[in-house]
Amino acid sequence: MASSVKTERLREQMTGKVDRIEITLHLLTFNLLARKDITCRFGSVRRAWPFGNLWWIFFLKSNSGLFSAEPTATQQETSSPAPLETLPTETPEPTSLVTEIPVLPTETQIPLEIKDNKNVLMRLIPAGEFSMGSDDSGDVGSRPANVVDLGAFYIDKYEVTNEMYDACVYAVECRKPQRTNSSTRSTYYGNPVFANYPVLYVDWKMAKTYCEWRGARLPTEAEWEKAARGTDKRLYPWVGNTLDCSYANIPGCVGDTSPVDQHEKGQSIYGVFGMSGNVWEWTSTLYDLYPYSAIDGREDLKTAGERIARGGSWNTFGGNGGNVRTDTRLKLDPAYAGAYVGIRCAVTK
User: At a CB cut-off of 8 Å and minimum separation 6, what does 287 contact?
Assistant: First the structure.
């Protein structure tokens, strides 16, 4: 009977129906009745019981933890842990998370050099003010100096060559130069030897037509001068006042035109070649006295009158003694087409 009770109780314990302490008490009671002695944590208890078995059962129930068996490993894993005292915890300080800094869109940088839709190199002339003309110029028409504010634009890096102009003629948009020779060469335009030399014998309307074919225009007189002298009032496109054949094709050097990319030392602060010497260059501007103003009628392309050419040439043509300073002006009949005047184009940025 004892055996069957023990088995039943163990089954109930495994299924969770009976508390482990209750089973332990029953088992200890059975052992006491059967053996009259027990071994506990404090030694051996013998047969002499002054108050009998009932008193001992009552004692066991009152001190059940004294004789309970040590829990097995399985029981330690399956038994519910005693609740832990909840201790106050410090709120963690906010930490700085490493995050990727968003890249904000920035203004696209303007290229200093481009090729237009006809594959012609052009240089950027940035927006801003510059001093136009000179108070100390021997050319009365270049006085007084005046501050002009311009928007950004591009201008041809080189003077328009025979080869460049011939492409427009081939496209049946431009007329051939009025003559195909130069001052000292019997064949010039159409001769491959001079393909990279400035085109000659084009009047103002022919120059205007060529630039428009490229999707460009003739530069204003103010744009031309800023491209040549920058913002520091220089007298020549290069730094300093040295003037010799290593900087430009001026009177006394070659005696005729030279390749448009020949004088690297003579390029302007913006990287524009040939703005002093070689050939004069047409601008869009009607001749008028200074101070310059783009809105006083001098930039009217339909008004008749003398137009301005800038830059000087290899010849003393124009009666200025070969003056190739950046502030020198030359007024010409727009119908003029000769051996000393060529083209340079511009486009608004």
Answer: 141, 298, 305, 306, 307, 308, 329, 331
Partnered with residue 334 across adjacent β-strands are none
- Look at residue 106 in the predicted model and tell me its pLDDT: 54
Beta bridge partners of 147: 131
**In this predicted structure, what is the pLDDT of residue 318?**
79
Beta bridge partners of 307: 286, 332
Q: Whole-angstrom Cα distance, residue 127 to residue 129?
A: 7
**Euclidean distance between CA atoms 155 and 219, whole angstroms:** 8
Is the preceding omega at residue 144 within 30 degrees of 0, hence cis? yes
287 and 215 Cβ atoms separated by less than 8 Å: no
For the record, the structure tokens of 273 come out as 């070649």
CB atoms within 10 A of CB 95: 6
H or E stretch at 154: strand 153-156
Q: Give the mean pLDDT of 218-225.
A: 98
In terms of DSSP H, where are the helices of the chain?
2-14, 20-35, 52-62, 64-67, 73-78, 162-170, 204-213, 221-229
Euclidean distance between CA atoms 132 and 327, whole angstroms: 7
Give the closest residue to 326 by CA, choosing from 227, 200, 245.
227
| Whole-number Å distance between alpha carbons of 275 and 188 | 22
- Give the separation between CA 133 and CA 291, rounded to whole angstroms: 9
Please give the C-alpha separations between residue 264 and each of 76, 164, 192, in angstroms, as whole numbers: 93, 20, 23
User: Would you say the C-alpha torsion 227, 229, 233, 235 has a positive or negative sign?
Assistant: negative
Question: 199 near 341, Cβ under 8 Å?
Answer: no
* Confidence at residue 333, expressed as pLDDT on a 0 to 100 scale: 98
Who's near 330: CB < 8 A, 6+ residues apart?
A: 280, 308, 309, 310, 318, 320
CA-CA distance, 55 to 10, in Å (whole number)?
A: 25
Higher pLDDT, 41 or 296: 296
Q: Which of 91, 253, 290 is CA-nearest to residue 263?
A: 253
* Nearest residue to 220 via CA among 123, 114, 344, 323: 344
